[in-house]
Amino acid sequence: MSAQNQLSALHTYKGVLFSSLSSEEVLKSLDSFDAREDDVFLVSYPKSGTHWVAEVVENIPSAGITLTSPIELGDISKFEELKMHSKRRVIPTHLSYDMLPVTVKQKQCKIIYIVRNPKDTAVSLFYYYKDNPNLPSIETWAAFLELFLKGDVVYGSWFDHVLGWEEHKNDKNILFIFYEEMKKEFAKSLKKITTFLDINVSDSEMSKIAQKTSFSTMKNNAVKENCDPNHIICALTSDRNLVFRKGVVGDWINYFTPKQKTVFDELFGEKMKHSELGRCLQE
Ligand code: A3P
Fold first, then answer.
1. Separation of 72 CA from ligand 1 center, angstroms?
2. What sign does the CA torsion over 18, 21, 23, 26 have?
3. Domain Sulfotransferase, which positions (predicted)?
4. Atom 23 of ligand 1, nearest CA residue
5. Which of 44, 58, 223, 262 is the right S-S partner for 48, CB 3.0 to 4.6 Å?
6. Number of domains present in the structure of the chain
7. Is the CB of 181 under 6 A from ligand 1?
């Protein structure tokens, strides 16, 4: 199948590709969403560790929250569905900063932005495309990487997404969390999250959260939770089994050829030359 045909399985809204699970109607109506001051948004480019952070937040004792389905998933009835939640809502999304509903910005809702090394993100997204019936199947890694670098993938360019959010890195209501730091120093990332949400968590509670949200626990639980509509936090599939692949840092090395690495690094260097996040992600 040609790259052009692959793209036709997706639709474009405001120049960005979306899967058919996000209707044009819901995307056009995002600004009619009435955010509450205590809403928390979990934002990321796809495959950056959204489910992991969602599970962490859900497991914080006495957080008093409800994890909802992504704001851009479904049709217009979505906004009515979101109104039904009486507890503090934690709402996942892969939207760019510009597309986020205006009331979220006006009310300065808390936002956790999760970011991951783009080479690992690209590999993870490649496998997600392969296994996910809601996304076009792109046969080779080389063809997928070309689309990824052009931003012709679902939710558009990784660079645009991250740079758009980075412009708001000093906003007090936005916390940046790195996938790699979560892997290396889980307790440190967890502390950042609980402090940001103003929730006290004891050391023993922290260890329980670490255990409940480990990759192996989450992967095993995905089988049981698969049909549970309360666990549809992914904007791209309701099949949780697709989400948990390897859960490691640096898997990209097994897929990038030396030439692909050079091309990627050159583009990264050019696009991220003024970016502090870019420097963190290179280390
Ligand atoms: P891989 O495909 O590299 O394994 P998202 O939730 O944004 O869709 O991101 C999915 C990626 O996060 C997948 O990466 C998945 O395995 C990884 N992931 C999910 N839960 C994790 C966990 N508890 N620990 C580490 N990685 C996790």
1. 20
2. negative
3. 38-275
4. 215
5. 44
6. 1
7. no
Residue 161 among the catalytic residues: no
Phi, psi at residue 77, to the nearest 5°? -65, -15
CB of 213 shorter than 6 A to ligand 1: yes
Q: Which pLDDT does position 2 carry in this prediction?
A: 46
Whether residue 243 has its Cβ less than 6 Å from ligand 1: yes
Residue 257: per-residue pLDDT: 98
What is the model's pLDDT at position 283? 59
Q: What is the ipTM of this complex?
A: 0.99
Compute the Cα dihedral for 54, 56, 61, 63 and give only its sign. negative
Cross-strand partners of 74:
22
Give the pLDDT score at 1. Answer: 43
Q: What is the pLDDT of residue 249?
A: 97
Sign of the Cα torsion 151, 174, 40, 33 reads: negative
Supply the range of the domain harboring residue 62. 3-282
pLDDT of residue 7: 53
10-residue averages of pLDDT along the chain (283 residues): 56 95 93 95 98 95 89 90 93 97 97 98 95 89 97 97 97 97 97 96 95 95 72 77 92 97 96 91 72
Read off the DSSP letter of residue 135.
Answer: S
For ligand 1, atom 25, the nearest C-alpha belongs to 247
Ligand 1 center to 247 CA (angstroms): 5
Instruction: Find the 115 Cα to ligand 1 centroid distance in Å.
Output: 12
Mutation test residue for ligand 1: of 42, 51, 162, the one with most atoms within 8 Å of CB: 51
Name the one residue in this structure whose structure tokens are 């995002």. Answer: 30
Catalytic residue among 11, 51, 85, 94: 94
The CATH number of the domain holding residue 117 is: 3.40.50.300
